[in-house]
Amino acid sequence: MKTIEWQYLIVSYLFLGGLSAGLFFVSALTELFRNDGDAPKVKIAHIGALLAPWPVMIGCALLVFDLGHWYRFYKLFLHFRWESPMSIGSWLLMFFIGVSILYAYGWIPGSMREAAFERLSGHLQFLRILNRDVSGWRRPLAIVGLPMSVGVAIYTGVLLGAVQSRPFWNTNLVAQLFLFSALSSGCALLILVLAASARKFEMHEFQSLYLLDISFLTLEFFIVVPYVIHGELSAEAVRESLNLVLGGPFTILFWAFFLGLGLLLPWAIEVLEALPLLLRHAQLVPRVDTATVAEAGTAVFILRDPGGQAPSRKLHFSRSWAVAAAVLVLMGGVLVRYIFVFAGQMSAIH
Amino acid sequence: MNRRGFLKLATGGAVGATLLQAEACGMPLRQQKVAKVPAPRLEIPTTCDMCVNKCSLIAIVQGGVVKKLNPNPENPKSRGMLCARGNAGIQQLYDPARIKHPMMRTGERGEGKWKVVSWDEALDFTAQKLLAVKEKYGPQGTLWSSSESFQEQFFRNLGQAFGSPNSVRHPTLCLASVNLAYSLTFGTVPSFDVQNARYIIMSGANRLESFITPDTMDLVASTTDRKARLVYLDPRFTKTAAKADEWYPIRPGTDLAFILAMLNVIIGENRYDKEFVSTYCSGFEQLAEHVKQYSPDWAAEETQISSKHILRVAREFSDAAPRAMYYAGRRSSWYRDDFSMRRGQAILNAIIGNWDRQGGMVPNAKVELGELMFLPWDDPTAPRVDELDRNFPLAAKGDGVYLRLRENVIAGQPYPVKAWMVYKQDPVSGIPDQDKTLQMLRQMDFVGVIDIQMSDTAWFADVILPESTYLERLDPVEMLAGIRPVVVYRQPVVKPLYDTKPLLEIVQGVAKRLNLSQYFDYTMEQWIAEQVKALPMDLPLEYLKKHGVYSSAQFPKYGTTLTPDHRFVTKSGKIELLSRRLQEAGYDPLPIYHPPTQVPEGQFRLVLGRHAFFTHASTTNYPWLNSFSTENTLWIHPKPADSLGIKDSDRIEVASGSGSIRIKARVTPKIRPDCVFMQHGFGKHSPWLRLANSGGSDAQLLETAWDKVSGGAAMHETFVKVRKV
Amino acid sequence: MTNRPKRYALAIDAKKCIDCKACVVACRAENGVPLGKSRNWINEELRGDWPKLMEVFEPEQCHHCEEPACVRVCPTGASYQRPDGVVAINRSECVGCRYCMIACPYDARFFRDDLGVVEKCDLCARRLDRGELPACVETCPSKVRIFGDLNDPTSEIHQILEKRQYRVKKREAGTGPQIYYLL
Fold this sequence. Notes:
The complex is a heterotrimer.
Chain A: H1 8-32, H2 39-51, H3 53-66, H4 85-105, H5 110-118, H6 138-161, H7 173-196, H8 206-232, H9 236-242, H10 251-273, H11 275-281, E1 288-291, E2 298-304, E3 311-318, H12 319-346
Antiparallel strand pairs in A: 1-2, 2-3
Helix pairs in contact in A: 1-2, 1-3, 1-6, 1-7, 1-12, 2-4, 3-4, 4-6, 6-7, 7-8, 7-12, 8-10, 10-12
Chain B: H1 3-24, E1 41-47, E2 56-62, E3 65-71, H2 84-87, H3 89-93, E4 103-105, E5 114-116, H4 119-137, E6 142-146, H5 152-162, E7 167-169, H6 176-186, E8 191-192, E9 199-203, H7 214-224, E10 229-233, H8 239-243, E11 246-248, H9 255-268, H10 274-280, E12 281-282, H11 284-290, H12 296-303, H13 307-320, E13 324-327, H14 338-351, E14 361-362, H15 388-391, H16 402-411, E15 419-423, H17 427-430, H18 434-442, E16 446-451, H19 456-459, E17 463-466, E18 478-480, E19 486-488, H20 503-513, H21 524-532, H22 540-547, E20 549-551, E21 575-576, H23 580-584, E22 604-607, H24 623-626, E23 633-636, H25 638-643, E24 651-655, E25 660-667, E26 675-678, E27 719-724
Parallel strand pairs in B: 6-7, 6-15, 9-10, 9-13, 10-11, 12-21, 15-16, 16-17, 22-26, 23-25
Antiparallel strand pairs in B: 1-2, 2-3, 4-5, 4-17, 8-14, 18-19, 19-20, 22-27, 23-26, 24-25, 24-27
Helix pairs in contact in B: 4-20, 5-20, 6-14, 9-12, 9-13, 9-14, 12-13, 16-18
Chain C: E1 8-12, H1 22-31, E2 40-49, E3 52-61, H2 69-73, E4 79-81, E5 87-89, H3 99-103, E6 110-112, E7 117-119, H4 125-129, H5 135-139, E8 145-149, H6 156-163, E9 166-167, E10 179-182
Parallel strand pairs in C: 1-10
Antiparallel strand pairs in C: 1-8, 2-3, 4-5, 6-7, 9-10
């Protein structure tokens, strides 16, 4: 009998797991490949590190409660079965959560840490043994955790992709799709947090996040397109399953909301916002200056002619556009997982 | 650490350890079971009672609980199988809606107010009421209606000993016309050797769904292995139609035309078995003359089957003879002229000489059983209330004609009938024209029901005397006649769960209070002991207890009646193609075709039928079976449905001259456009049969009609109007 | 078939199936399957138009595959395959993640809400160990099902598969199903 067994709890976990993976990845990457004293990059790494453990832990709690016997979840850790993506995933998650908590711990400012332990009273005193400065572990943990975060993001796709009986999923592109969706979700959340915060954050400092996100989104796009095209040229079961998004119940959701609003639109916004940086990287303009905040929440890029003084073009960088793009990407991340989880279970070999 | 802390830790640790231990033992927390030595697993053979085939089964009983019913491979009639209903016998035993104690009503009939009473009180009341009616109206003022069971004879005997001639039984609603037709032709009703046949024609007799018998299994085996060809005539595309080689959606009520045309061809082209006819049959010349008028072209007009097919089938049928058969069927309660059709069948079978031959019809063989001699009573002197002698002189006396009887009782003619004892029957659900049944019921001074569940009839009764179910009962040994006769044994596999009794004890209880004990002064064990004395083995009772069934290897036997000196039990001593008895009783001695009533414009003929997982009206409340059909629907062809604006699953109203019901529509191409079909056993009044309250009751729609000669109910003569609501 | 000492399998002669539901009820009775779910089922297909109609009935249940996807994906090993080929579930180890349900190409598994574990046909393993046939095989009136050890050359199933042509369902799923539908 055909039932949709994995529903909203699983969709949420897949999203949240990917989100944590993306956050960790961006934080670790930024930390490993920055110059000393590059304050914005440090900030990105810092916030990413602190945020990273939480979504996946919430996701795992949801996962455990989705089980038929939630209190038997420990059995997953009594076995390691390399043929089962779920077994691999459980262990991977465990190690990743451990590493990301430790990594986050290394980013808590020393003063805050001291103050918190100071407030411990009575019998909890023994916890003071944990009051250690592990900030020196940041880079090693980033190196160790980076492949783990990739693993966590990819395995959510392998979970689906390894199932031959669901033709909608039966392609290794699903793993890649979920990976880049996760990474871009991580970027997006960071953009959202930084843009929405009241604190002043230098607008040009978004640029690195934008570049990352644009890269991830581009790669994601060039996975979705082959997924559909190649699928349409494959076995009948695959073509039939793709009808779910080509005229079937998930069509509008897939093309308009996920691909359109969740991928292409934020990509376009981010490209426009990062245009000056991109143009400079592409060496199409010789020089880009920035001016400080003219109005609250915007920055102005001024392009100058090579020898000229007068501004030839003004490009606005907007905080609200940043928030919009980030929210759209996050929505897209949730949607792609929703579509895949549900449509996949509806597909079958006939 | 202080003491409190220690206790907390200890209990916490203990609880934790217990949980882990429970998990390790594989016991989920939700069901904490204490492991103990498992009770011994008993395998007890007995006989099923979920339909009339009486298959042998082995009950798996553990700790006094029936766990599973497995087939018993030793019975050639059930061939090591147990159908859906047989498997669901467990639910009959453990049905929470079973009647657990004797009950008497406290409110109005049908109000549903009951009080539990002791057996003494219930039996006292029953006897008192019966005696009161006897006092005022004579013993013939009591009606005794029952359906078949191994103990039914005790109930009937009680009625007779009481002095009432009015017994009415299930055949008048089912096989009366086919039995009478074959009896008058051959002197007996034969079985059909489907296993060895090569060409089988069936009119209805949906063996793949109605009930699972050896014929069912043989039909499937033969047709799928291409050993036999099955031609199936039915206005509905049943499962039998799905497996048949040829299916014709014959115009309802025209099967006789088909048969007469076949006779026309077979006789006209000299394809009949001349030697057989001249040796064993009488009345052939008249038959030959009679069928000249029934040409295939004429039949094609009547049946809406092309004459090309009729011709071909007739020729193929006769070519395959004697391993060819026109299957008689069982439920023949179809049309007012049904008897004639069955006579036509019998004649057709006769002239191709398939009688007592392999692959043809075989008279039933028997295994002799002993009989307990009990005190006989005087036969009732009063005439039957349905005036059989006058209205249906050839009908089986002991079975009665239910619908005629009901008319008379309602009219109070020729005399009043004021008490009604019902055993293992649900007339309110089962008989056409429910309003009339309730009318007859309401005018009774007393209605007593013996049943296992709160049937619709029990719901309207004054007293209910609960019988134990078949898994709780020791029954008389039963001999099932047939091509391979068997003797089956039924023994209790568990003790009665509730305060119920087997029928014999109920009868004895009533008899005592009617001063009729002397006719029932034996126990079931004594009865059985006499029966098994005639069996060939040394310790027959032990044998039956162990095996559950006895069959003799000497069967099947063919040709036992094909001796020159054999005398058939007919007036002429031969197979009567032209029936003298019919002639003398004033009926057509040869079947004459009368076209069925035309379906009025815009209406539909309601036809009935069965499903493999229900037995009539009595099993629709068992969840395992009900799960396959939680309510009945009205099957209607897409074309007329479309013109009435009815879509699949729409709620519709179906109305006839007897009443109307609301039911769900099932739009399907599996039925003739001029017919509709609905399943039996739903739309029940009794709220105890909760799962069967859904849908609609065909009893409310069917109109009163009966076969002219046998009196059997004619249940396909009702026309209905259908509209969307 | 393989290097197993014993390989239980089912051959189904669907032409003989009359959709009487005996197998479904027998399985329910034998294995305590709750209503609303079923370990076995009968696929029905009506073809054609009035009056040229055709209907086929095809019983189905877990195919006890040679390379069962459900066993592969199970994270705790609760789903396992016996040496004789029967794929079974160790209820106490099942955490109820339902990955196996998704991995099965035949949708043969279902979730027991009351027990929190996954369930499916196990060829009545308890009966097999007692030397009996699975309940569905034993009870069938038209003898649709042939059950036995493929590796035993004297077994009915071995012989019939040598004589008759057959197909399996969803071969493309690549799990090596062991229900053989006779043609």
